[in-house]
Amino acid sequence: MRLRSTGLGKTELEAKIEEVKKVDDVVIFYVRTSKPVKWKVRMAFQQQDLRDLVKAILKPKNIGYILRAFFCSEKKVPRTETF
Fold first, then answer.
1. In 1-83, which residue ranges form alpha helices assigned H by DSSP?
2. Cα-trace Rg, the chain
3. Predicted TM-score (pTM) of this structure
4. pLDDT at 77
């Protein structure tokens, strides 16, 4: 996964989700960045955030991309431009 922050300028972080856990009223994604720095990042999603995420995933233009990621080899899945 790639992450960017306005606070880091054009720096792009490489990261991987390590764990997803429900804690109280949120779902927490534990992410570890590997380049250019090694950080542990937590993202807490509340119910509205999860609804918004699922709505975005279910948009037709995104469903095709996601299905190709599951059923095609990695070389055939088009990479998005740097965001």
1. 47-57, 60-71
2. 15
3. 0.71
4. 47
